[in-house]
Fold this sequence. Notes:
The protein is mainly alpha-helical and 297 residues long. It has a domain at 29-145 and 228-295: Cytochrome c oxidase, subunit III, four-helix bundle (Four Helix Bundle (Hemerythrin (Met), subunit A), Up-down Bundle). 58% of the residues lie in helices and 3% in strands. It has helices at 27-62, 64-70, 76-101, 105-136, 158-169, 228-260, 270-295; strands at residues 208-212, 220-224. A two-stranded antiparallel ribbon has the order 1-2. A hairpin with a 7-residue loop joins strand 1 (208-212) and strand 2. It is elongated.
Amino acid sequence: MKPGKHKSGQGAEQGHDPYLAHHFSDREQQYESATLGMWLFLATEVLFFGGLFCAYAVYRSNHPEIFVWAHHFLDKNLGALNTVILIFSSFTVAWAVRAAQLRQRKILQLMLVLTIICAGGFMAVKAVEYSAKWEHGLLWARQYNPAVHDDHEAEPTSHETMSSSADDHGPAADPTNADTEPTPDPLLRDSERTTLPDSAAGPQGLAVQEAETDVEENEHLTEPRNARVFFSIYFLMTGLHGIHVLGGIGAMLWLLFKAGRGDFDSGHFTPVHIVGLYWHLVDLIWIYLFLLLYLIH
């Protein structure tokens, strides 16, 4: 449904349309120009996120063991909840566009409020996910440092273990004995461990180490080297998407203010339409993120 035509140069007695920019001849031309401009903007957004998806594909192709291991630390239930929230918000924003076309002011305001609530709920769920990653040190780049938490019972140190062994079984073994090889500490960071790879360990001979994690019921999982790559991609892609969600919330609040003034009718609903297009793209990008990061392994 397009806005009706409204010529602006029919004479002074007709007056000037307050919703028609001076460089457009009528509302229909303004609507088509705004829609075309929005689609061009969305095309640049697709190219922007497309580059990130390409980076994801390259790293996953070259280091599949990283993604197979790391996806276990993402909560699929929270990801699915966010997917349902955004799909519902697409329905409410589409209804808002229709309400603006029919001049249903109260329904328009209600649908915008529901969309804002959905967006806020999405960010709240994402904050819960991020806080869990922060707590366990599953962060990006050099910030990646899976930690042993203070609330767990401290494990005995190597000196205490040697002392206990000496009390129970006689003198402790001499650590300088040439026949005794030191046991590598599984909690060492990549920068502190040897760069010599194990022989044919993992795809393409990638070195791996055994690491104990507190993330999922203290399971013993095999952590691949450079696991931080996955979490760097995760935070980059979901963080940028979150910024777009916040931008959408701001746009919805602007529409809600204008709707409260009664600015929209069957001849002027272009702002609601173009914001709705933007929001649909935000929802679509999240669906791909959910599939690639949470489900595919």
